[in-house]
Amino acid sequence: MAAEVRWLCFVALIAFDICLVLASAPFKRFEYKYSFKPPYLAQKDGTVPFWEYGGNAIASAENVRIAPSLRSQKGAIWTKAKTNFDWWEVDVLFRVTGRGRIGADGLAFWYTETKGAYDGPVFGSSDKWVGLGIFFDSFDNDNKHNNPYIMAIVNDGTKEFDHQNDGTTQLLAGCLRDFRNKPFPTRARIEYYMNTLTVLFHSGMTNNEQDMEVCLRVDNVVLPKTGHFGLSAATGGLADDHDVLHFLTSSLHPPGQAPTAAPAAPRVSEEEQRKLSQEYADYQRKLDMQKEEYRREHPEAAGRPQDPDADPDVWFESDSQRELRQIFTGQSQMFESLRELSRKLDEVVGRQERALSLLGQLGTGGPAPQQLGGAPGQVQVGDTIRRHEVDAILNNQNTILSTARELRTFIMEVHSRADAILQAQGKGTGQGAGAAFDLHTLAGELRDGLNALKRDAAAQRTGGPPAGGCPDPPSCVPPTVFLIAVVVQLVIILGYSMYRDSREAQAKKFY
Ligand SMILES: [Ca+2]
Ligand SMILES: [Ca+2]
């Protein structure tokens, strides 16, 4: 009964936890004004929308090289606008690569009240910042062989970064992770929600996005209400390329406080609308004219991709091509399904292990749980019966059964023999009646005799010498009496023999 109650409590607790987790999961909204990602990361003019970069930083369509692998380079990129949300999550995909076994100096992620410098002393940006800095420190300044290192430092604008000790005197928390020269891009997910700062890190050893692990988690972190996001990097005597492939920001909102929809676009007046339509029509006409002009100037280009009749291969596919494409699509789908299956299998295995470990804890935590009443299918928890034990029990049962069978046959045999004897006795009573009668009377006589003897003995005990005098008959005959009796007997025998002799002598005389 106690085991059932414990189980019910356990299940209820898990359900409650799940509800709690689901209910407390924050609402997440992507913030494009605080993000950048390829393709078209940088515009043709080299600018990154909503961002400003400087120093030795270079932005391309695919990434932002915050500091290149040259000596003493410094660069940074900062959001133009300040944030307008309390809690956030930033996903930074980056690569730190260099030809050297050791690199320098490192990369920094910033969330600060004001924008920092583009060529400052702390990993390429300003010292004495107000807010958060997360540093990916490649170079081991204090020679403690503990770099590359990831750490978080919150500054109120008074502290100078302790380069001599690699910031170890100031950090909130950190973790030793190598992020240089990895086969796949490394990734950091920095979450600031309800004053808890969490940094997850992906080592770049796999291309599975889910392989993130916790680097640090700190509670009660207080950051400026609003601020700028930034990235900076620096090189020294040694140099790495510091490339950031994407920077994705999401605002986090507690359940029940979902953000209001973006303000509706200002209404366009009818006049403006007509003007815009006119502009669009003009643009369309101009484009057509330009196309016509191009065709006139390049007659050899005419009839190419634009014209399906000129090159059917570009526009149409043959049967075999279609078949190949279908096979390819089918295989891709199969591959996707397999991957999904594999993922689910992993999940199931994980859950099973968790459940087993919990059961193990339950088993060791208290008295061995009993089998649940009313659920005959359930196995005993904690100490399950094993196969060989079941086999042993079955063998024992078989032995017991065969022994019982042998016993039954034996008893039946005895019974039949007893029957036979009884029958034989029943027949024999008529024939041997005389002998049996004799025996019976003899036994009766013997019993009577014994009874008489008993009576005599009792009488002698009550009427004889007082108790304690001489209870044993042999000791009741004193030696003198015994001798007298012997002498009397001898005298009688002698007298009798003498009497007989004299009688014989007299008889001889008469003959
Ligand atoms: Ca360092
Ligand atoms: Ca160090």
UniProtKB/TrEMBL annotation:
Transmembrane segment boundaries: 480-499
Protein name: L-type lectin-like domain-containing protein
Pfam families membership: Lectin_leg-like
Bias-annotated ranges (Basic and acidic residues): 268-277
Subcellular location: Endoplasmic reticulum-Golgi intermediate compartment membrane
Highest taxon, organism lineage: Eukaryota
PROSITE patterns: L_LECTIN_LIKE
GO BP field: endoplasmic reticulum to Golgi vesicle-mediated transport
Keywords in alphabetical order: Disulfide bond, Lectin, Membrane, Signal, Transmembrane, Transmembrane helix
CDD domains: lectin_ERGIC-53_ERGL
GO CC term, one of those recorded: endoplasmic reticulum-Golgi intermediate compartment membrane
UniProt GO molecular function: D-mannose binding
Region (Disordered): 249-277, 293-315
Low complexity: bias regions: 254-266
Mode of membrane association: Single-pass type I membrane protein
Domain L-type lectin-like, chain residue ranges per copy: 28-252
Secretion signal, residue range per the UniProt entry: 1-23
